[in-house]
């Protein structure tokens, strides 16, 4: 699948100016702006990686797309319509959007057999005809064959990789149109990692299913994603095709992230100081300015953009689907 | 001639006792770490790498059987009396564990936790808590903080300060960056690198992530099913692995920008073997794509490779022409 493919028709998922704020537990405490103005579209069959540090809001965004988190502003449209709020509408929506979490051991009920786990979705959605056949087919499609050998096993009898396959099979029986995978391989062993990624890629191709992969690992999008969105403090700061973003990063944050990945040897290491930033106190101007190497090295001043960096919040330019864009003042000189 | 080997492990076996019988976790490991050298130890969960690390300081359950020899600065750790062992732990070799949040005492100020080790070994060191905090890049006001007031990266810095507090010769770092974010991980690796160079420390760096090893280690050993299957200079091994397992491990972390790995995630079918039910012959043969019939019955020992002085590989194909060292 070429990542430069032309998309036709409507987007499957469209996020416009999405905000999610968590109120402080204390009175008068500051609000955490976990997601702070995100635009994103996903086409059917497309794999998009959402990359960022912990605390950047990527998991909150995933929850918002699933309808598990109320938006404080903005809209999310699935297949051209808003995410339903009534019970019947929600049920239909959830059949089409499934999630795979990071830790398969935590997401499986230890008292359910593999068969019960995978069949649960079918039962909830009232599709009990051919249950055995559908469950077996889903398991085999996810690399657990022959399925009969696994049906009656319990999670503790499986390895980490096998458990994640069961989780994916449970998501796939409902034939979702969108799969959200939140760090699907980060708790798995290195050798299993590639196998699970390959499975996700194959499923997306065969079923024309869109996948949003949330990850902090930049090698993952190089392996499977068509596009990458880099998130920093609640905002997407750079987005484009995987090749564009990873080979020619535009935003200084993306460049710094890439420079510390040891598989990427072309960039000089730029280790950002300090801890992951705090969404309760997003700085004025560009949200990246307290850690930005261009501000710290004086390069922003030389370019005459320092005042903008400190005072104006840069926005992502309007774009076509595959354009490579970033929200940085240095790009508009 | 003065022997510059800080750690010399010979024929080490570590066997746990479980209700299902003995579990061989480490099965005949030889290791050498020279003064100022960093050895990376890579492998998947369950391969025995953490057991090996713990056994080096005899930090294993009392029923565990250990045999072979572990020479730390010339003294055999396995035959030491408890008092002598206590002097060696922390003062000669110390451990930086993974997941600092589970290792630090949550109800004790971090200054006191660092001080504890110094107090126990006083005489052998003159460093103070303040110096140790400065060394790892924390301000000395942090000494009064409790662990929950620190971020993950800061807690890992405290762990490193504790490990260094008694001036050890050898640091055993067991997945020191695994639970951390990419950027914080880079900060910690840089810190360890600087300290190592300034103090001329030796280090055993254990990880499952081969990509971390290329920049931070001199030599790398790859472990599978309780044994070392390949060892050699870091760059050489990571770029041209000879053992099919090390190759699969290296390939599972793509090189960003390399067209060969674009849309081609690579993994290794199957799962690591259960130490209770090791396959016959070479324990890797059920997952190996180049196994031949004899692999099912003959377990090849780790031995030197014809083409490279510093490489050792445990594979029947180690000296095949087609697998020449790059």
Characterization of the model:
The complex is a heterodimer of chains A (333) and B (326). Chain A is α/β, with parallel strands linked by helices and 333 residues long. Chain A has one domain: 3-Layer(aba) Sandwich (Rossmann fold), CATH 3.40.50. Chain A has 13 helices and eleven strands. Chain A has helices at 58-65, 87-96, 104-107, 114-124, 131-141, 160-172, 190-207, 219-224, 242-247, 252-259, 293-296, 299-302, 306-311, and strands at 13-22, 32-42, 47-51, 73-78, 81-82, 97-100, 178-182, 210-215, 227-232, 235-241, 325-326. A seven-stranded mixed sheet of chain A has the order 6-7-8-3-9-10-11, sandwiched between helices. Chain A has a four-stranded antiparallel sheet with strand order 2-1-4-5, covered by helices on one side. Chain B has 326 residues and is α/β, with parallel strands linked by helices. Chain B has two domains: 5-92 and 168-325, Rossmann fold; 101-167, no CATH class. Chain B has helices at 49-56, 82-88, 100-103, 110-120, 129-135, 152-164, 182-199, 210-216, 234-239, 244-251, and strands spanning 5-18, 21-34, 38-42, 65-72, 75-76, 93-96, 170-174, 202-207, 219-224, 227-233, 303-305, 308-313. In chain B, β1 (5-18) and β2 (21-34) form a beta hairpin. Chain B is globular, with a radius of gyration of 20 Å. The A-B interface holds A 1, 53-54, 159-162, 189-198, 201, 216-219, 222-224, 242-243, 246-247, 256-258, 260-264, 266, 269, 271-273, 275-276 and B 44-45, 151, 153-154, 181-187, 190, 208-212, 214-215, 248-249, 251-257, 261-269, 271-272.
């Amino acid at each position: 699948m070429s990542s430069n493919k032309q998309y036709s028709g409507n987007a499957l998922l469209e996020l416009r100016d999405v905000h999610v704020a968590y109120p402080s537990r204390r009175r008068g405490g500051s609000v955490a702006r976990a997601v702070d103005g995100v635009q994103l579209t996903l086409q059917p069959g497309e794999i998009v990686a959402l990359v960022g540090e912990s605390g950047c809001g990527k998991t909150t965004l995933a929850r918002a797309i699933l309808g598990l988190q109320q938006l404080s502003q903005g809209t999310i449209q699935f297949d051209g319509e808003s995410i339903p709020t009534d019970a019947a509408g929600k049920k239909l929506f959830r059949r089409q959007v499934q999630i795979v979490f990071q830790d398969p051991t935590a997401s499986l009920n230890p008292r359910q057999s593999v068969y019960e786990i995978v069949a649960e979705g079918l039962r909830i959605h009232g599709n009990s005809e051919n249950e055995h056949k559908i469950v077996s087919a889903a398991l085999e499609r996810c690399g657990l064959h022959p399925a009969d050998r696994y049906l009656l096993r319990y999670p503790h009898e499986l390895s980490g990789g096998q458990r994640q396959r069961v989780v994916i099979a449970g998501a796939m029986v409902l034939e979702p149109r969108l799969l959200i995978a939140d760090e699907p391989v980060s708790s798995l062993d290195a050798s299993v990692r590639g196998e699970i990624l390959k499975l996700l890629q194959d499923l997306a191709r065969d079923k024309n299913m869109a996948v949003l992969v949330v990850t902090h690992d930049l090698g993952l999008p190089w392996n499977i994603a068509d596009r990458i969105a880099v998130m920093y403090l609640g905002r997407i700061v750079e987005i484009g095709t995987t090749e564009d973003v990873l080979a020619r990063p535009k935003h200084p944050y993306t460049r710094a992230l890439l420079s510390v990945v040891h598989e990427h040897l072309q960039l000089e290491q730029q280790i950002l100081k300090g801890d992951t930033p705090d969404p309760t106190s997003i700085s004025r101007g560009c949200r990246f300015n307290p850690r930005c190497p261009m501000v710290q090295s004086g390069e922003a001043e030389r370019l005459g953009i320092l005042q903008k960096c400190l005072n104006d919040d840069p926005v992502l330019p309007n774009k076509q689907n595959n354009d490579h864009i970033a929200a940085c003042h240095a790009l508009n000189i | 001639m003065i022997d510059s080997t800080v750690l010399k492990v010979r024929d080490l076996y570590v066997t746990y006792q479980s209700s299902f019988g003995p579990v061989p976790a480490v099965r005949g490991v030889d290791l050498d770490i020279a003064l100022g050298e960093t050895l990376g130890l890579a492998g998947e969960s369950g391969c025995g790498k953490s057991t090996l690390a713990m056994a080096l300081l005899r930090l294993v359950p009392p029923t565990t059987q250990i045999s072979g020899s572990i020479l730390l600065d010339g003294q055999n750790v396995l035959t030491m009396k408890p008092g002598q062992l206590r002097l060696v732990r922390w003062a000669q070799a110390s451990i930086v564990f993974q997941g600092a949040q589970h290792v630090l005492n949550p109800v004790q100020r971090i200054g006191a936790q660092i001080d504890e080790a110094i107090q126990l070994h006083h005489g052998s060191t003159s460093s103070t808590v303040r110096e140790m905090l400065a060394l790892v890049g924390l301000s000395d006001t942090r000494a009064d903080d409790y662990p929950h007031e620190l971020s993950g990266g800061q807690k890992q810095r405290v762990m490193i300060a504790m490990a260094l507090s008694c001036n050890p010769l050898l640091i055993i770092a067991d997945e020191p960056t695994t639970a951390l974010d990419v950027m914080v991980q880079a900060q910690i690796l840089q810190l360890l690198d600087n300290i190592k160079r300034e103090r001329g420390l030796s280090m055993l760096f254990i990880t499952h992530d081969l990509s971390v090893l290329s920049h931070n280690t001199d030599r790398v050993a790859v472990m599978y099913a309780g044994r070392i299957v390949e060892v050699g200079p870091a760059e050489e091994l990571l770029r041209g692995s000879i053992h099919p397992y090390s190759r699969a491990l290296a390939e599972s972390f793509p090189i960003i920008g390399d067209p060969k790995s674009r849309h081609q995630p690579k993994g290794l079918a199957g799962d690591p073997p259960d130490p209770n039910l090791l396959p016959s012959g070479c324990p890797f043969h059920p997952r190996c794509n180049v196994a031949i019939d004899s692999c099912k019955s003959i377990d090849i020992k780790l031995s030197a490779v014809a083409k490279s002085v510093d490489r050792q590989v445990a594979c029947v194909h180690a000296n095949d022409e087609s697998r020449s060292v790059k």
